[in-house]
Request: fold
Amino acid sequence: MVEVLVTGGAGFIGSNFVRWAHANRPDWRITTLDKLTYAGRLENLRDVMDSPRHRFVKGDIADAAVARRSCASPISWCTSRPRRMSTAR
Ligand SMILES: NC(=O)c1ccc[n+]([C@@H]2O[C@H](COP(=O)([O-])OP(=O)(O)OC[C@H]3O[C@@H](n4cnc5c(N)ncnc54)[C@H](O)[C@@H]3O)[C@@H](O)[C@H]2O)c1
Reply:
């Protein structure tokens, strides 16, 4: 299985990508990490929420601990320690 982390995946673009990837990449296990701001809606992920190949994590990508926890596999690329993150406005 390929572990894929999609940030902002409850938004418009992210959720379309998550649904597409879930339907077209059966060898992907997808983690959607989203802060659920005004733009994020769990309803956008309705089709994949019960899938064993998808999980949802509510959190901020700028929070290194949350980002680390969102990585399912110990050999995943994103287990390398995020040090400092900033958000562009
Ligand atoms: N029906 C439509 O045509 C439609 C609907 C919505 C948006 N749009 C357009 O799509 C474009 C933007 O779409 P998008 O999906 O890139 O943006 P978005 O704003 O729709 O979604 C961004 C997602 O990122 C999440 N997010 C924000 N900060 C975060 C953080 N720090 N950590 C984790 N998650 C975080 C939000 O909760 C949200 O789910 C815009 O041009 C918008 O106008 C079109």
The pocket of nicotinamide-adenine-dinucleotide is lined by residues 7-8, 10-14, 33-37, 39-40, 60-62, 87 (CB under 6 Å). The domain at 2-79 is CATH 3.40.50.720 (Rossmann fold).
